[in-house]
Amino acid sequence: MGKLQQFHTTISCSFPSLLTGLLYVWPSYTLGLYTASDTVLLSAPMADLESSLLGSLPSLGAMFGTLLVGWIISRFGRQKGGMLLILPFVLSWIIIDFSTSSIAILVARFIGGIGCGSVLVYSPIFISEVAEESIRGTLASVPVATYCLGVQLSYILGWVLSYRYILWVNLACSILAVALIMTVTESPVYLLRQNREEEARLAIAHYRSESPTSKVVLEELSRLKQQITPAVELIEMNNDDNIKSEEAEKEKLNTENHSPEVKAKMSSFKILFTSPSSRRGFMIVNLTLSLQVMMGMVAVQVYAKQIFSQATPSLSSHFCSVMFALVLFIGSVVSLLAADRFGRKFLLITSSISVALCLIAMGLFLQTSIVPPWVTALLILVYCFFFMYGAGNVPYVLMTECFVPEVHSLASALLMEWVWLLNFFIIGVFPFMIKYFGIHGSFYVFACFAILDTLVGLFLLPETKGLTNEQIQEALLRRKT
Prior knowledge:
This protein is mainly alpha-helical. Helix content is 80%, strand content 0%. Its main location: membrane.
């Protein structure tokens, strides 16, 4: 029963990721209505620059929203803060519904982007604070799956509904997201930080479906209190080469043995980059996220429409888009089901190897034209599945697991800012890659990053399946030694 409560909170705080998918895909079937010379939706058709900004402004808004999320959820809590983070979606669709001005719609897109950036950081933080170790990987995979579901739903809406009804469905989903967040119980970690210990104990009892006075609840409360005790600065000692690695590890982990003069309160930023385990966790998650972007999913999505139109001209672009999104969603669901069964390392390594093989084959087929175009189109769907099954999802699971509470918000915000910048970079560089390397050469480059991701999984990534936060920090240190 306790796991049911955790699933409920996970679905509720992940539902805004569905709103992100809806918002990002919307221009793909709306832009033509705005740029048409006889458009009745706007007072004047959108110019080239305005039509370009329609798709890109949410990314700029997302960078701004990522900066705000840490302060908002620390100030207002995970429940009320989550409701505030969803409001940009509501405001964005209301402005678009009542506007006939291109400028107003572009402003609305930027506002919606603020919500996108913030909720993608918010949900992993909330999930990490309520999930049990046995199902944490599954729950941490839910935000990516709901994002893919939002993409799928948006393509279907663009296929079957008219412009105004699509806006109303998006607005209704945004309001539903606020309502869902209202039903969740506040995070016990946040409550303890606010010195509301009794409420924290009741929250733990809720999420574990145990009596507030039970041994399980009291032990969890004690563990969380120790976990969120203000971190202390560790002065690394110069050890002789013959000191055992286990002793060095204990020296880093056990702060109680240091004298009071060595202990001093530290800022989250300082903890993140001076604590060996936090620093190493940040490096590993950053590597997996960066390599994920550089494996070219965004760029391949841009080129996929052209390949689909060449390979299957008899099928509508709407149908192909729905199939593309369906494969992404299926891959994310498989990852959700497999994360706590097979572990993070297995998913990342097998996914990266499969993606590398698919990209090499796609490049070879496009370079030599030895197969019919529909084979390449089918291979793109296979590539999307394997990407979402591991490499596209595992980094976000790791972002949920690899940080202590003191640095979780800061680390997540910094990592997501980097992801937004890297996505912007790869989309901007892709046309030049095609110009100088050809589309087949670009796929070969992306395959190199998939191979690098495999090496990270093999040699740097510790297995985090089923481990507590403290055990994960120890595993990060052991991997270092």
